[in-house]
Amino acid sequence: MLKLRVHLDVETYSALILGYCRVGKYEDAFGLFRRTRAKCWLLDSTSYSELLAGLCDIKNSEAAVEVFYHMALNRCSLHPSSYCKLIKCLCDECQVNKAINLWQLASCCGTSCCIDAHTTIMRELSKSGKAKDLLVVLSQMLVAGCNLDAETYCILIHTMSKQNQVKKCVLFFNMMINEGIVPDPGKLFDQLSFIANHSQLCMISSAIDKLLSESDILNSAMFGLLITGLWKEGKKHEARRLLDLMLEKGWLPDATTHKLLIGSDARETRSQDILSIDNSAAQDTVSNILAEGLGET
């Protein structure tokens, strides 16, 4: 009887692995991968990416890392979407340190690190309260020429606020707004609240002006927060200017802001020994503008 021996080459193995992946048999595909590794063969980019992504989908992070290490150490790049899946899979399993190690290895083998991978790592570090590690990752991102997005900045600002690092919060807030990046209204309000509570609104005055001139994101609550905060910081001219803008939009300050400004204006009047002011001559004062909108109390 004639017996035929079939010698499978790396292209055939890659095709078989890809076929298994396409029908969801990732464990079988991983078994074939181990055979190729034993022969020191390297998969093509398509079968490599689909195998690794599939292993992440079935939460087999150990096998996915094994595939990545073999290919990356042989300078094989990975498709960004598959790489992001790997990082997310590890972070979901609280293996952020391993994710950072793979991130550093990825940069050496030509794998493009998408912003989603960075933010996933940073989010996990933030949850763990590892502010120093977060800044290390940030520095590596900047050195690599990565652009930060709104979520990245929000993670940084939130982490620094939890650590009560006010100066860093102000720095990142100014960077974010100067780059034309604006978070959603809820996060923006929280960021402004933290800065206002530490009497540092004067340090973001340029960013506030940019928000006023280039977006309509500031709502009545944010206006009230800024007016009250600036007034308390002694920036009364800026507070009055924001009040004028607020009234132009048809918004009225809340009771807290109203009480603060009315009380402050009254104290200024007493300190100047002014006994009476004619209503017609005081139309531009804060108290009269507010009284006109809210009614005398």
TrEMBL record:
PPR repeat feature ranges: 9-43, 44-78, 149-183, 219-253
Pfam hit, one: PPR_2
InterPro entries: PPR-containing_protein, PPR_rpt, TPR-like_helical_dom_sf
Coiled-coil regions listed in the entry: none
Keywords associated with the record: Repeat
Family the entry assigns: Belongs to the PPR family. P subfamily.
UniProt name for this protein: Pentatricopeptide repeat-containing protein
Species of origin: Arachis hypogaea (Peanut)
